[in-house]
Amino acid sequence: MQIQRETLSQEALLTLANELIRSHEDFIHGMRADAVEQRGDVLVFKGEYFLDQDGTPTPKTMAVFNMFKYLAHRLSDKYRLA
């Protein structure tokens, strides 16, 4: 059974994703999706991961990773990248 997904532009998907991020209870100031790509049936969101100067994760890094995972789960079943 094939799931019907609405096709959206990158700009529209990023607008939707960033609205979801800002309204989420785990939002951190500066957290945003800057890019999205389609990998099979999954939308992969990318943005700032709040790494420190030597490239190692900070406490904010896991929150961003979890937010992008949340976006993938929430939006991949509904939308496809144009």
Automatic annotation (TrEMBL):
Stated name of the protein: YciN family protein
UniProt cross-references to InterPro entries, sorted A to Z: DUF2498, YciN_sf
Taxonomy, superkingdom: Bacteria
Any matching Pfam family: DUF2498
Listed NCBIfam families: PRK11037.1
Gene3D superfamilies assigned to the protein according to its UniProt record, in alphabetical order: Protein of unknown function (DUF2498)
